[in-house]
Amino acid sequence: MPKQPVSKTTPSLTDEQLAALRTLIPQAFTEGRIDFDKLRASLGDLVDDPSTALRQAQGDSSGQAAPERYSFSWAGKRDAIRILQAPSRATLIPCPEESVFNTTDTKDTTEEKENLSDLRALRGEFFSTQNLFIEGDNLEVLKLLYKPYFGRVKMIYIDPPYNTGNDFVYPDNFADPLDTYLQLTGQKDSQGNLLTSNPETGGRYHSAWLSMMYPRLFLARQLLREDGVIFVSIDDHEVHNLRLLMNEILGEENFVASVMWQKMYSGKADATHFGTFHEYILCYAKNILTAETYLLPRTEEMNARYSNPDNDPRGPWLSNDLTASGERSGGHYPIVSPSGKTFDSPQGKHWLYARHTMDELVRDNGIWFGKDSNAFPRLKRFLSDVQQGRRANTVWLYDEVGHTDEATKEVKDLFPENTELFETPKPSRLVKRMVQMTTTSGDNNIVLDFFAGSCTTAQAVLELNREDGGNRRFIMVQLPEPTGNPQFPTIAEIGKERIRRVVMRMKKEREGQLALDKPEDLSFKVFKLAPSNYRQWDGTQPDAAAYARQAELFADPLAEGWQPENVLYEVALKEGYGLNAQVEETAVKGVQRVTDLDKGQAFYLTLAGKIALNDLRPLDLKKDDLFICRDAALDDEAAANLALQCRLKTI
User: Fold this and answer.
1) Residues 197, 203, 209, 211: is their CA dihedral positive or negative?
2) Residue 207 burial (C-beta neighbours within 10 Å; 0-12, 13-18, 19+)
3) Of 111, 135, 287, 630, which has the highest C-beta tally within 10 A?
């Protein structure tokens, strides 16, 4: 097999969808393109034929009336789809100096940060944690995560801008999303593209909000496992549009629930008509047939309703009605209590069970007839039979999952020096409930939040892992949106610092205690969105000489100032390897082995300027091994021989 180039961009979603369609309906393609007549013929009645409607629009009334179809659209939807389909040329670079490692002391000193930036930290401790914080525009980040994390995320929770008139609306630019991001974050000279709000005075631009949400939710769906679930917080301003949008992207059949969260415990006297006490959380499954939601722990209040007045050896119980409304054949028969008193179901009702089942319950002391055995019979339901848990309902009260004041207090307790650091956090108990419902303690589940804000979700995951001994891991994504706070100039800085302080507090809580059998992952590593390490070809040169000069630069495809660690992660990401991949030095100097343990795949990488085939012999490369190097490092003969030995890709 000849050598191949490494991937320079994220995958094209359009190409992947076409490939899937070609696999399912190959007859719909002619000379590599879709033949829509053949596609319609293949799908039959499942496809609308627009020709009838077109004829009618042109004044031809001879055809049948075209059926009207339900649809959901908005101004700018096509652009939203186009920006989704545009591959990303960005990358994620590691930032060990901003990360927190398991073996790091809780003291935060300058000397410690200098040590963290050492290459040994990157090679060792940086790979020990499974938790990730990614700073950057979430649309570009989701595109970069698409290939390595496709179908791997168990639960997603996001708290996006509500489009109330004051919150931030992401200014997506179809032409060059990365360029816009660099300008907005001050990494590049601004050309007038500034962070903007959706001001109340201009009206609530539903279309702009929908165009912002569409590509992000589409990519989020691709990251979910088949049994995965997504939760989205929203209020009355956009809940109707969000429901329609999620129906389109995830499928109306995969709707799970619309939860009403009581966010406040007291009303406001200045409310115009009604005091707003609630927000919504929409829940959808990737596939409703395989989605899993787990039982929640029972509360002490629920268990307190059970007692054991007859000292039943099976433990506490609660009595329930033994009858149901309506007459039913066989629903009337006598039941005799231990005292000899006879009972029958009242008129208009029937016994819940058939007579032989009821007789077994009486013999087994499963029926309660009162202390003197003369009361109307009731069914005994034992606490031991229901202790496995309870199903969540669609109304979440503040005393169970917290309220906005509690959320604000949580942030203030972590940041006592900043009384007004973050305006709209969610309480960690609220997010913890969603994580409890959708993940288990022992399955290494991934929890993603790509509107991370102050990183409540990260705190919820870390604390829940401590409570049940779990090994869940989080991926937080947050735009470095300016705050005006000199100590924490962006929301991303607030999020990172909150995780650090939660980790520090949890480490201090365990000081002096015996070591756990399974160490906690009280750490996280930081990545930042950045321009690609690969040179980007610009074909718009003013003259032939300038064109030739740019072509000369591409003798080395790596951009000026590239760093080995940054190139390694870009190669890994765009080849489909996760950010938790392990990097090991090999027996060959300058050659590293990169392994994604979750996927069970690995590749070898060297960025050496020259490669001698004899030096690679200790690797014992096989046909299925992937070896990646710089194209200029191999002459034609070496490249041909190496391509015969293994799968060769070049930069």
Assistant:
1) negative
2) middle
3) 135
Measured CA distances, 343 to 321, 337, 348, 368, 375 (Å): 14, 8, 15, 13, 9
Q: What average pLDDT does the structure give for the chain? A: 86
Residue 473 in contact with residue 498, Cβ under 8 Å?
no
Tokens 């509690």 identify what position? Answer: 406
| Paired tokens of 342 | 């006879």
Residue 457: the pLDDT is 98
Give the Cα separation of 235 and 250 in Å (integer). Answer: 20
Q: Please report which residue ranges of 453-511 form alpha helices under DSSP H.
A: 456-468, 491-509
Tokens of 23: 């696999």
For the chain, list the domains and their CATH numbers: 8-79 (no CATH), 88-294+400-530 (3.40.50.150), 300-386 (no CATH), 537-650 (no CATH)
Residues linked to residue 456 through DSSP beta bridges, in sequence order: none
Residue in the structure block whose two tokens are 């009206």: 203
Q: Rounded to an integer, what distance in angstroms lies between the CA atom of residue 83 and that of residue 176?
A: 9
Strands 224-234 and 278-285: antiparallel
Amino acid at 461: V
Quote the Cα angle for 330-333-335, to 5°.
140
- How far, in whole angstroms, is CA 235 from its chain's centroid? 20
As a whole number of angstroms, the distance between CA 291 and CA 286 comes to 7
CA distance 366 to 384: 14
- Sheet with 601-606: list strands edge to edge: 4-5, 647-650, 626-629, 601-606, 591-596, 582-585
Contact yes or no for 437/404 (Cβ under 8 A)? no
Per-residue pLDDT tens for 349-391? 999 999 999 999 999 999 999 999 999 999 999 998 886 788 9
CA angle 423, 424, 425 (to 5 degrees): 115
Phi-psi region of 153 (alpha: psi -120 to 50; beta: other; left: phi over 0): beta
Q: What is the pLDDT of residue 229?
A: 98
Inter-residue contact 528 to 480 (CB < 8 Å): no
